[in-house]
Amino acid sequence: MEFQKIEREDLPKPPLEQPVEKEAKLEDFTQTVEASETLGATVNTDRNLDAILGISVDIQVVLGSASMLVSNLLKLGRGAVIPLDHRVGEPVEVVVNGRVVARGEVIVVEDDSSRFGVSLTEIVGAGTSPSPEAFN
Predict the structure, then answer these.
(1) What is the CATH architecture assignment of 59-135?
(2) Where is the composition biased (Basic and acidic residues) (predicted)?
C-alpha cells in the first residue's frame, strides 16, 4: 500500500462565513426601567435583583487576634492557649468581603448546643473596614 504525501496547503479550505452586519442601537445595551409609585420596578429589574440576591457570600466572625514571634509560634503544641486581644463580652465583628457589616455577641445556638452563633447588636454603615488588630 502506498500513501501520497499531502501538504497542508493542498487541503481544502472551509468556506468563510460572511459576518452579519447589524447596526447597534443604544437600546440593545440598556434596559429601561419604568417605575411607578405603587408597583416599584418592572419585571426586568426584579429579575436582575433576583440574580443578585442569589449570590452567595462568605461571612467571617472575628473573635480577636494575637501577635507573637515565630520562635514562640513554633513552640506551640496541643493544649496551648493563645490569648486574643478581645475580652469576654466584647462585641465581635461580622465581616463580609473584607468589610465590617455588623457587630454582635457570641452565643450558643439554641437548636444545636454544639454550635456557636452571633447575636447582632449593631449594623455598621457602608465602607467600614475591620479593625487593624483583627488581621494582625
Answers:
(1) Roll (2.30)
(2) 1-12
Cα–Cα distance list, 7 to 10, 12, 83 (Å): 5, 11, 74
Record the pTM: 0.52
Q: How many CB atoms lie within 10 A of CB 49?
A: 12
Mean pLDDT of successive 10-residue stretches along the chain, which has 136 residues: 60 57 52 45 68 89 93 95 90 92 93 92 74 50
Ordered by start, the domain boundaries in the chain are 24-55, 59-135
pLDDT, residue 52, reads 86
Burial 77-113 (b: 16+ CB within 10 A, else e): eeeeeeeeebeeeebbbbbeeeebbbbbebeeeeeee
Look up cell 467571617; give the residue.
Answer: 60
